[in-house]
TrEMBL record:
It comes from the Eukaryota. It is found in: Cell junction, Desmosome; Cell membrane; Cytoplasm. It is a multi-pass membrane protein. Keywords: Apoptosis, Cell adhesion, Cell junction, Cell membrane, Cytoplasm, Membrane, Transmembrane, Transmembrane helix. The keyword Transmembrane helix applies. This is p53 apoptosis effector related to PMP-22. InterPro entries: P53_induced, PMP22/EMP/MP20/Claudin. It comes from Circaetus pectoralis (black-chested snake-eagle). The keyword Transport does not apply. The lineage of its organism: Eukaryota, Metazoa, Chordata, Craniata, Vertebrata. The chain crosses the membrane at residues 12-32, 77-100, 107-131, 151-172. GO terms for cellular component: cytoplasm; desmosome; plasma membrane. One of its GO terms (biological process) is apoptotic process. The gene is Perp_1. Belongs to the TMEM47 family.
Length: 189
């Protein structure tokens, strides 16, 4: 943002916008039914963070079982949900931080630290789920962790990357605020 001459006033909303996209991806992961799906015919298994559904054959009715009956199901849901709530809090704090004319860089570094905590909780939930699901739930055929699970990992990766950006941004405080005299590499003869 600083190195290529992008003006702070034009680019100040990029990081909150990326956090907003991370929130949207987190909502998709929480609400999506594609955490685990059957990969080949017959498509008889489908699971979300909250429940596991199966049907006896291709045209049958789905029967669903809540994963909240398992301790690991509650742990996976709780840790991912805590990470998501922290992400939403970081999004709100980023909107407040970048809306103020005088940017508080220590406040921004705190948002970065909170994003790392959110990433830890999200990754814990994303690791608990497949490990315990594949050992505790009987699966038939070939199954894959699918699109909603991928959105969960995308959210966690965004939390980590944006945490680095929020933590490193205060190092360029003078350049962002325009307190440094520009250096020109071209000199006329």
């Amino acid at each position: 943002m600083v190195k290529y001459g992008l003006d702070y006033t034009r680019c100040r909303w990029i990081l909150p916008l990326l956090l907003g996209i991370g929130v949207i991806f987190g909502i998709i992961a929480l609400a999506g039914r594609g955490w685990l799906e059957s990969q080949t015919l017959p498509y008889v298994h489908q699971a979300s963070l909250w429940e596991s559904c199966r049907r006896p054959d291709q045209g049958g009715e789905w029967t669903c079982e809540s994963l909240m009956g398992y301790a690991w199901g509650r742990a996976a849901a709780a840790t991912y949900l805590v990470g998501f709530i922290l992400l939403v809090i970081c999004f709100a704090l980023a909107i407040i931080a970048f809306a103020i004319d005088t940017l508080r860089f220590n406040f921004i570094r705190g948002i970065g630290g909170l994003l790392f905590v959110a990433a830890v909780f999200s990754v814990m939930g994303l690791v608990i789920y497949p490990v315990k699901f594949s050992t505790e739930i009987e699966m038939t055929g070939i199954n894959m962790f699918s699109w909603a699970y991928g959105f969960g990992w995308t959210t966690a990766i965004m939390e980590i990357c944006l945490g680095f950006f929020f933590c490193c941004l205060p190092n360029y405080e003078d350049q962002i605020l325009g307190n440094v005299k520009p250096t020109y590499f071209y000199s006329s003869p």
